User: Fold this.
Amino acid sequence: MKSPSTLTHNIPSLNISHLQLKQQGTPLLSLNEEVKGGEVLTIMGPSGSGKSTLLNWLVGMLPSDFTATGELYLNGQDITNTASHLRHIGLLYQDPLLFPHLTVAGNIAFAMPKGDKQTRRDEISEALNQVGLAGMEKRCPQHLSGGQQARVALLRVLLSKPKAILLDEPFSKLDSQLRQETRQLVFEQIQRYSLPAVMVTHDQSDAIAAQGKVITLDTLSLNEVAS
Amino acid sequence: MIVANTLFTRVVRNSPYLLIALLVVPVLGGLLGVLLPAFGWFPALGAHEFGLFGFVQLFQTPGIERMVLLSFGTSLASTLLAFIITILILASYFNSPWLKRIQRLLGPILVIPHAAAAIAIGFLITPSGFLSRLVSPWFTGWDTPPDWLLPHDPYGLSIIFGLTLKELPFLLLIALGVLAQPEIGKTLRAQHKVASSLGYCPMTGFFKVILPSLYGYMRLPLLAVLAYSSASVEIPLILGPNTPPTLAVAIMQWFSDVDLSLRIKASSGAILQILITLSLLGSWWLLELLVKKCSAAFLINGEREYGGMLIKRLTDMITIAMLTIIGLALVAMVLWSFAGFWSFPDILPQQLVSLHWSSALLQMQTPLFNTLVIAISTTLIAIALTLLVLEAEQQNTKTISAISGFIIYLPLLIPSIAFLFGIVWLFEQVNSQHAYVNVVFSHLLFVLPYVFLSLANSYRRLDPRFSSVAASLGVPPSKIFWKLKLPLLISPILIASALGLAISFSQYLPTLLSGAGRINTITTEAVTLANGASRRTSAVYALMQMLLPALFFILAWAVPKLLFRKKG
Assistant:
């Protein structure tokens, strides 16, 4: 694997360099991986194997009873000690976590950088159109179906212009049909925006659909899925 | 759920009606007992015709405008200040272990009665108080007490100070209680994480994402605090101005006056007090609308940072100042209770004596006895009734109606000064001469809501399968209640009891009015002494007011541990 210094800054990438995670002194996991833009690194493993802890470390929110050594590089920049809100790493949870006090458009606008009001409105309408939610700007999130909420949550992450994206079992609460549709949409957008992505999941079909490297934490064996 | 028709099940089935009657009849009856004299009908004084002369007298009282302004202004300012500081603390320490530490430090403040808190603050801010001693003469150059306005300043600043310090822990603990609820807290914390991942600094993320959701859960307690503070008597009586005082204090003085004709003016004043409280609630609602309108654009403007570090530093200073003030007030009170000669500007008394404690303990035997008897009686009734009503919910397999839920909190939402005098009138109508019974009954109105609030959650969370299994084994409902449910709930029952006792210990106006001045408790004595000459004795009484609830909370915590400790 190339060292971070030899990476060109034009190629988006998320580089987890010699990470060692420990819980109260007990080793939990080690990882040394590079994820390029448009690729999805899938992390699988049983409960307690450290999947969520890994995501917490990636976003800079490691709980106090865990310690970590290693570095994190995003597009060649060392963000190991960067504050969470300055990392530009988007998060997609299994719950959409839309803000109930904002409309659909409000939730998406919340994520967008500052800018001209009309330009933002136009961008939101176009984005909603692209995911089959045209005309839903003024709806309250509580009045959307699960699949619709998932799509709004995805748009919210993407329009914040992240440099990488983390997926924490984002499809686990969706029924199988919706799961397939939403999964396809998410992976298409990851490719379209050329974002390096790390996905945590229990589901083999998610890992297969991601068509990327799969790491199972309990055995620490590498299972590359043929694309 | 099908249950046999036994004495126990009949008592349980009728307990909700008893609860509602016990709350509605006195409060509405009390309001009527004030409404009729307010509009001129007071046969005891020979007034048999309705009219507005009570109100005319009221509005001709010198300083009435100032009284109204003081009541309105101090209540709004203190509630707003307490709310803003609460929010700043939550925003600054949201994901920090400091929040739990602050919670542990402020928790005990909740059980300090208003009168004791006012006395403690008085010891701090008087011209010869602890604050001026700490900075004199090395900083101020004062070698005699300065001539400043606090307390009893005409602008109500001391009242605002006292009410803010008393309300802030309550609001903070309400908010923390909401965040501690598994589903709500988990969702809000996850949303805060989402905001952070979208580039929002923690402070801005809190204000834009958490606060709009959290506020909904805090609204009712906020309104209760606003309503209570608008008609509060203890803090304005001890810290507020005297000429004129707040409207609630003036009403109390008119009702207590030997000139019975003032009762009509007092009743009109009570109606005016209700209107002030309603206008405060209305003003708060308008403020909410204004904030909602003005913040709509702010929430989605994409601005991620609003000087979060500066606000955090400011909050750190406010938090340290607040905790220091509370600590100093308590230290000052303890020092005064043991102080011999203590000249200004000495920080410590020249001598420490136990004389005040020994003489106060001798004097306070009767008030202490009264305090304990009334509190224990009230709390036992409140606990018993609450348990029966909650058992009725389980037997009927549905919770009490929303209206019944609202009625339980009615005595907390209506200014007590507006109906307590009416309750006294009711006691006179039914010729109830037993002062103890009258006082217990009036305390019950204030203890019952808190006991219900405290116990309801725990009782409702009891796994119903325990009862189902017991019933399937042939155990009757009464035995399930006594032998199964109550032992499982011993800890929440003890906590609710400690809370009920604490509320009863702190009651001033209900004791004064319902007891017709014949029943002295630690609180009534403390308030009397606070306005009298003996600062040292009032310090002892105020400390007793704090020690009593603290003792029972410690017992409530320790007893289950002793009863159910692991053996071997």
Q: What stands out?
A: The first helix of chain A runs from residue 51 to 58.
